[in-house]
Amino acid sequence: MRYVEITNSMRKNPLSCIFFLIGLVIILFVVATLFNLIFKTLFLNMEGFRDILNDPAVISSIWLTMYTSFLATLIAMVLGIPLAYVLARHDFFGKQIIESFIDIPVIIPHTVAGIALFSLLMKRGAIGGFFESIGIVFQDSMWGIVAAMLFVSYPFFVNAAKDGFASVNPNLEKVARTLGASQSHAFFHVTLPLSVRHIVSGAIMSWARGVSEFGAVVVIAYYPMIASTLILYRFNTGGLAESQPIAVLLIIMCFITFLAFRLASKKKW
Amino acid sequence: MRYVEITNSMRKNPLSCIFFLIGLVIILFVVATLFNLIFKTLFLNMEGFRDILNDPAVISSIWLTMYTSFLATLIAMVLGIPLAYVLARHDFFGKQIIESFIDIPVIIPHTVAGIALFSLLMKRGAIGGFFESIGIVFQDSMWGIVAAMLFVSYPFFVNAAKDGFASVNPNLEKVARTLGASQSHAFFHVTLPLSVRHIVSGAIMSWARGVSEFGAVVVIAYYPMIASTLILYRFNTGGLAESQPIAVLLIIMCFITFLAFRLASKKKW
Amino acid sequence: MLEIVNVSNDWNGIFALKDITLKVNDGEYFVILGPTGAGKTLLMEIIAGLYYPDSGKVSISNKDVTQLPPEKRNIGFLYQDYSLFPHYDSRSNIEYGLKIRKVPKSERETIIEGLSSMLDIGHLMDRDVTTLSGGEQQKVAMARALAIRPDILLLDEPFSALDEATRNRLIGDMKELHKKERITTVHVTHSQEEAMILADRIAIMMDGRIVQVGEPKEIFYKPENLEVAKFVRIENIWDVDVIENSDKGLLVRLNGYEVLTPPYSKEIGERARLLIRPEDIVLGSGENTSARNRFMGTVESIEYRGFFNMVRIDCGLPVVAAITTQSVQELGIEAGSKVGVFFKSTALHVVPI
Amino acid sequence: MLEIVNVSNDWNGIFALKDITLKVNDGEYFVILGPTGAGKTLLMEIIAGLYYPDSGKVSISNKDVTQLPPEKRNIGFLYQDYSLFPHYDSRSNIEYGLKIRKVPKSERETIIEGLSSMLDIGHLMDRDVTTLSGGEQQKVAMARALAIRPDILLLDEPFSALDEATRNRLIGDMKELHKKERITTVHVTHSQEEAMILADRIAIMMDGRIVQVGEPKEIFYKPENLEVAKFVRIENIWDVDVIENSDKGLLVRLNGYEVLTPPYSKEIGERARLLIRPEDIVLGSGENTSARNRFMGTVESIEYRGFFNMVRIDCGLPVVAAITTQSVQELGIEAGSKVGVFFKSTALHVVPI
Q1: Minimal CB count within 10 Å: which of A156, B44, B170, D74?
Q2: CA-CA distance, C135 to C153, in Å (whole number)?
Q3: How would you classify the pairing of strands D271-276 and D236-246?
Q4: What are the residues of chain D with a beta carbon less than 8 Å away from any beta carbon of chain A?
Q5: Chain C contact set for D308 (CB, 8 A)
């Protein structure tokens, strides 16, 4: 059970005030890190930033990142919505095991995930060979990026969707059934519309997680270069001066997409 | 509100059965990826795995990874518990902004985070210079690894702790106050003990997240090599044959630590 | 007609139903009364087809529906939380079942018109259901359940989420509605008041079992056993020895007095438990009554309870009487007063010890 | 003595308290009665110091405690959910306040011994509190609140989480306890029954305001206004014209009859609202009574309510009477019967329209 009541204002609670000050340290750490990067770029290196905006390699790598992550999220949704619904509504033997498998990608080191995916999906790999025969290549290709992003990001989507379905009063579905709805009518007309906020926010999280991934992607597909790979490449070849502007641009693009989705999904439930 | 009731068995719910089968695809993807990696290593390349166990560079990089992530988690706990408590119990102006700052590291691409941290903490950076003067160097050092891990992992801890505190009935604290407890007595004797499971599980998640990080760490500290960096280095120099065994060993180590903590924290609440 | 035969359900031991057999007649208002956690909601969901029983049979109008899914049963279900669809307005909530049944728009409108005037909810039709008060939600949910012209109406604690005033008003409305429409209704509740006011017949359910079925007065005056007696608030429960058993009834020894009860089959010398409801105890100042059974006692306390007063009297054994405020004034009693306690033999009830 | 003076709290408009002034005497059992959402819990938390009022003053024993933190007030607080510490057993829960006060172990044991025998919870002492039933939890929580020998005991809906039987038992226990210990108690509830049984005085709270304060009979017979009247279930509410005003009272025209009420200051020709409780209506077959105020009517329905019967009569205007089952039998009435309706002038109450 989650208690949503806010118990008290902080006024006259000395402990809370001290706690707040301690907690501020970590917030300041994040703020300083981001502010320092953005300030240095936009105010001290505006020219470098402008150059980046005109660098086709940068722009295309950012689009590639956002597009592949979008594809990974789409797959996570198609496969994850049914799974999340079953997990939220039913109890069955082995459910806990399935739930652990959902969370595994979160705790596996990213390069390990990359090695594991490469090993499975490379042209001479267990599954990769089969996919190559039907024309889908993962090694150093867009599909490899999508696979790596899907692997690391789907837990975020499934868990959010599961929370969403669990937050819909099951009596609503039951009432719909007594009123004559089949299970799928009740799902598509009652449960799914009422979970839409959780599903959208899970999709956003999943997309953001995909965009942020580097370790898993770089193993399976160094090329085509996603933004993260390009940033590290430019950092290694040109130092901060060349990598910072790309980093800032990527942050800005992420934030805009993020906010746009958030606003578009503002509904009452 | 979260409805924990399980509405129905899957028996006689055809939609749920179809959904379950669709959902299985993603579970199979994860299982196949991991099984393929572990099987190839432990059954087809046992010798390579044995070599790795005797490779001091591998062992020390794994220890370094686990130890730095432990330090990052410790810092996240010290700073995060107070913050989480304040956020769970109080409402104040700017709370939502603080909550967004907590989540930012989750959506920032890892190499971008690395660049931002490097830019702030490098020897000639805004803060790095000050820290160097008191003897703490981040660039290519253990502290840089800790900083990068802290940056990416503290959101997991703070959010779990916040959920934990929010799950403790605030009336318990209030009753303790009327019985004569100061706010800090009530916190340390009532709220904190009752949140211990969430806090431990948040710490485990945070630790696992730190261990899994690669992109942010590699920018600020390529050396000393954490396990992820070493794996990619070996992959680039020796291919799958050299990198797979390290990946498997890291997975095994992570799982053991993970399970040990989980079991140790099994309490009723 | 709804028939439930030997329905059992063992759900890891929780919410278990044990061999439930019940028959609800057409047009009857049937109340299942029992404490929280007795398995009442599960039984309702089995009737509706939302759960399937481990064993046993459910039939509606002599047709076995045990394996029929809920959408094929034509049952109206009202949950305690009303479970209105929060993404629809009141009208769309009520229309939901009709749209699934592909009822044409004009006919839908006629049905909604009728329900809205019957339940007096016309003004709520275009309101967002999340803004409705508890009582308004209940009415809209009721309209939604009635819109499909259900064969059976299942009401799961329909009044327990409401405040007292609204509850009293809606209970009255429900009684009116049933008088007019005569829909076969099964209503589960833990409230005796609801059961007394509404029920044609009552089933007492405890720990997943049906303990007693009967008309309200039967349940309240002649409970099957001590557990039911306590649940229906019979506060006078006295252990007695049987000293004579004749056609006229049992003669029992109670507190030094000999008391005559209606006939029960008991052996002489056996122990038994005598019950009498507080409202069947009459207080008087003297001996001016035909009641054979009488004690003298001292008033311990008089509690004002609104429509009546609860008087506790010490007659050597504790006696509780429910009497009107007028009686209290006429008798001029207060704590410490001496008072005569009378009751009719016919009001006594004997249950096994 | 507890005094609350002009306490207001505006919390973004929700749970707002509006200018609350109350005085609770030492040893008094004071009940704040009102519907859910009236701000009762917030008022209690302000008394306990868990919230600070926006304006106004709280004093205990003539000492201003408005700015004192809760741990310095020595107030026992019982929440509706009992809020036992789930990581402690019953004994440690009860000991919590004593340990903070650094009461030595032997003394702690004496206190717990005393409470455990007073509340009959000795057998629960070493039980994990998460395994206790609702009633058991309530008792342990009560012991925990009493252990610190509070100056004031605050009870927030202490019985509403319990089933009917347990509730009735514990209300009785509470009455006993207060009789013995005489701890100044403030009890908030939405249940009139609790208020009637337990209260020395009652305050009616609605929408964050105190509407009326008085002894139970005052509240139930002489409500301040129509809102309170409805809340205390006065079901007979009739609009009348005043036709005469003398020392003896108001003469009003009601339903074609002239009816005498007790004295109220009203102008001749003014409209007024006449109230009478259902239990003050007497039914008879003829005219054999001294009551000046009488009607003839037809019985519409008789609802059995356990300790009494609710009879609805149509006398041209609707009349509701609460009478005993004996009276029903003696009068031999049923739906459709003609019946005489009588009431005493003194039982009438007039409120503004």
Answers
A1: B44
A2: 18
A3: antiparallel
A4: 50-52, 69
A5: 279, 307-308, 322, 324
Tell the residue number behind the tokens 């669709």, with chain if given: B22
CATH number of C234-351: 2.40.50.100
Q: Does A167 touch chain C (CB under 8 A)?
A: no
Confidence of residue C56 (pLDDT cuts 50, 70, 90): very high
**A56-266 has which fold?**
MetI-like fold (1.10.3720)
Centre a 10 Å sphere on the Cβ of residue A97 and count the other Cβ atoms it contains. 10
Asked whether the beta carbons of residue A8 and residue D50 sit closer than 8 angstroms, the reply is yes
Q: Do A10 and B90 touch (CB under 8 A)?
A: yes
Are the CB atoms for D76 and B178 separated by under 8 Å? yes
Answer yes or no: do A13 and B183 touch at CB < 8 A.
yes
Q: 3-state DSSP call for residue D202?
A: strand
| Omega before residue D158 within 30° of 0, cis | no
Structural contact between residues B196 and A183, judged by C-beta atoms closer than 8 angstroms: no
Chain C residues with CB under 8 Å of A172 CB are 83, 85
What residue ranges of chain B are covered by domains with CATH 1.10.3720.10? Answer: 56-266
How many CB pairs (< 8 A) connect A and D? 6
Task: Give the number of other CB atoms < 10 A from CB of residue B142.
Answer: 17
Q: Do B8 and C50 touch (CB under 8 A)?
A: yes
Q: From the list B115, B184, B231, which residue is nearest A115 (CB)?
A: B231
Please list the pLDDT of chain D residue by residue as tens digits (353 residues).
899 999 998 766 665 888 999 999 999 999 999 987 778 888 999 999 998 888 999 999 999 999 899 999 999 999 999 999 999 999 999 999 999 999 999 999 999 999 999 999 999 999 999 999 999 999 999 999 999 999 999 999 999 888 777 888 899 899 999 999 999 999 999 888 899 999 999 999 998 899 999 999 899 989 999 989 988 888 899 988 899 888 888 889 887 788 888 998 888 888 889 999 998 888 887 555 555 677 888 999 888 887 888 899 998 889 999 988 888 888 888 888 889 888 888 889 999 88
CATH architecture of the region C2-230:
3-Layer(aba) Sandwich (3.40)
Looking at chain A, which residue has its C-alpha nearest residue B110? A212
Nearest CA in chain C to B13: C69
Contacts of D79 in chain B (CB under 8 A): 171, 174-175
Token pair for D336: 């459709």
* End-to-end Cα spacing for chain A: 20
**Cβ proximity of A163 and A198 under 8 Å:** yes
Residue ranges with strand state E in chain C: 2-11, 14-24, 29-33, 55-60, 63-64, 75-78, 152-156, 184-189, 201-206, 209-214, 236-246, 249-254, 257-260, 271-276, 282-284, 293-304, 309-314, 318-323, 338-343, 349-351
D200–C contact, CB cutoff 8 A = no
Closest by alpha carbon to D133, among D162, D92, D173? D162
Would you kindly state where each structural domain of chain D is located, as residue ranges?
2-230, 234-351
Of A172, A193, A269, the CB nearest to C83: A172
Q: What is the pLDDT of residues B189-246, one digit of tens each?
A: 999 999 999 999 999 999 999 999 999 999 999 999 999 999 999 999 999 999 999 9
Q: How many CB atoms lie within 10 A of CB B24?
A: 16
DSSP letter (8 states) at residue D29: E
Give A132-165 pLDDT, tens digit per residue: 999 999 999 999 999 999 999 999 999 999 999 9
Cis peptide before B224 (omega within 30 of 0): yes
H or E element, residue D167: helix D164-181
Percentages helix, strand, coil for chain B (3-state, rounded to 5) are: 80, 0, 20
Using the Cβ of C311 and the Cβ atoms of chain D, whether some distance falls under 8 Å is answered with no
> CA of B8 to nearest chain C CA: how many angstroms apart?
7
The yes/no answer to whether this complex scores an ipTM above 0.90 is: no
